[in-house]
Structures are given as C-alpha cells and as structure tokens.
Amino acid sequence: MKTIKYYIIAGLFALSMASCGNSNAKNNENNNSKNLKEMKFEKVALPYATDALEPVISKTTIELHYGKHHQAYIDNLNKLIVGTEFENADLETIVKKSDGAIFNNAGQALNHNIYFTSFKANGGGEPQGKLGEAIVAQYGSFDKFKEEFNAAGATVFGSGWVWLAKDASGKLFIEKEPNAGNPITKGLTPILGFDVWEHAYYLDYQNRRADHLKEVWKIIDWEVVSSRY
Ligand SMILES: [Fe+2]
C-alpha cells in the first residue's frame, strides 16, 4: 500500500513539474513576442479588409502573404540586425547597404510595405496628374506601358519583382529585380511593384503568372501610387 501511495505522490509531483515547465515555456514565448514587438520594424498596416481585393487576390492569399510571409520577413529582420551596424538604421538604409540574409529580409520587408499599400477595393483605372502624363510621354499610352510592365513581370526568372521606378529627373524605368531586389539599390525611387514570387499568386492562378499580372491593374490605388512619383 505504501508503495502505491509513493507512486501516486511521485506521479502527482511529476505532473505538477511538467505543468510548471509548460507555463515557463509559455512565459518565454510571451516574452519573446513582447521583445519582438518592442523591436524596431513592423509591417505596414493593411489599408483594406483581407477579402477586399477579391477576386483579383483572394482572402486566403492575403492572409498567407501579408499575415505569414510578410510577418516572417519583418521578424527575421528584427532578429538579424541585433548587434550589427544596422541595429539603429532605417529600413531604406539597410536595403541600400546590407547584403546576405539581412538584405534579403530588409528588401522583402520594404518591398511588401510598398506592395500592400498600392491596392484598394475597386481600384484600377489610369493614373492622373504628373505620373499619368509621364507614363504617356515615355511609353506612348497607358496601355503600352502596361504591356511592357506585364511582359517584364512575366519574364522575371524564378522569384522576384517588377518595378516602376523613377530617377531624380522624373524619368521612368521598368525594372526586373530577382528575389528581394528593389530599385533603390540602383539610386532609383520605387513607385509601383508587382510581386512575382509564387506565394503572391499561386493559390489563385496556379502557374498562370501572366494572367495574375493582367488582373492586378484592377486593384491599383493610383492616388497612393501617384503620390510616390
Ligand atoms: Fe511576396
């Protein structure tokens, strides 16, 4: 009987230690997320509901792309810069000056901040004002510009971006960038970027990247995008 009692007490003690361990693990988890929150970079707030861009970009894609992929770039960046020369730098400076893993995550953090703020429900149409005029002056028409931009996006080999960018004189450039590339590394200002990583379109368009690119124009918030010119 004494032996049974001993086993019951030992079992209860082990259970209580395990539960204490779990609670410590949970505390550590909370501390980690709190630390991350206190760190510098956060992803840009999504200026629309996750289903607002349907059917061009589905709610599921936004939830994964913005909620998981973009968050991971931000979290990785915040961890990677600790103790480096970039710890107190702004995001654009990090993209311009870093390489390797820090560049990859900083580039993607910046790229997705620009990308997710370029859209709105029932967007589309054509840019007005100076950007609209510059596009027509340089490419002949907005449709010709779109054609050239789409062709560039469709032919980025593997993962990457296609960008509309400008130089200091206002001249426009369509730039194909691999992986986390952003035209600011070439001294240009990014105005509009289409993400051609498969995570941006595969759930909705599978391998039909060109079809996705044609549709994205329907959700552009030209007021926001034109303000970058
Ligand atoms: Fe992406």
Q: Supply the CATH class.
A: Alpha Beta
Q: What number is the mean pLDDT?
A: 88
The number of helical elements comes to 9
Instruction: Provide the CATH topology.
Output: minor pseudopilin epsh fold
Distance between the termini: 84 Å
Uncertain parts: 8-37
Overall strand count: 3
Radius of gyration: 23 Å
Query: What is the number of independent domains?
Result: 1
State the fourth-level CATH superfamily.
Iron/manganese superoxide dismutase, C-terminal domain
Order of helices and strands: HHHHHHEEEHHH
Per CATH, the architecture is 3-Layer(bab) Sandwich
Overall 3D form: globular
- The percentage helix is 40-55%
Percent range for β-strand residues: 5-15%
The major pleated sheet works out as: 3 strands, antiparallel
Strand order of the largest sheet: 2-1-3
Walk me through this protein's architecture.
- The chain is globular and about 50 Å long.
- Residues 8-37 have low confidence and may be disordered.
- A three-stranded antiparallel beta sheet has the order 2-1-3.
- The protein has helices at 2-38, 59-80, 91-97, 100-116, 129-139, 142-154, 202-205, 209-216, 222-226, and strands at 160-166, 172-178, 189-195.
- The protein has nine helices and three strands.
- It has one domain (56-229): Iron/manganese superoxide dismutase, C-terminal domain (minor pseudopilin epsh fold), CATH 3.55.40.
- By secondary structure, the chain is mainly alpha-helical.
- A hairpin with a 5-residue loop joins strand 1 (160-166) and strand 2 (172-178).
